[in-house]
Amino acid sequence: MDFVNSACAHAVVAKNQIKNKLVRDFRAARAGELSGQGLIEYVLIIAVISLVVVFAGPAVATAIKNQFAKITETLNNGTTAAGTGASGFGTPAGH
Fold this sequence. Notes:
This protein is mainly α. The chain contains one helix and no strands. The longest helix is centred in the middle third of the chain and has 76 residues, at 2-77. The chain is rod-shaped and about 110 Å long. The protein starts with a helix and ends in an 18-residue tail after the last helix. The model has no long low-confidence stretch (mean pLDDT 75).
């Protein structure tokens, strides 16, 4: 009877070892899957940002360039509205 109990005990130990190995492998695979998922999310975020820069970048650059051109023109020519002072509201102070 000891032989049967011993064989059963070894079978249970072997089953538990296999089960533990499968659980460890599953957890390792799942962890790798999650880190791969995170990597894919970062790649998608970078792709979306790149698309926005490629398509909206030239329009934004043109708008910024136009604003700097207006600033440069204003600094070179001053205000051109008749009767306005430095503040741009009516007659200059003290006149």
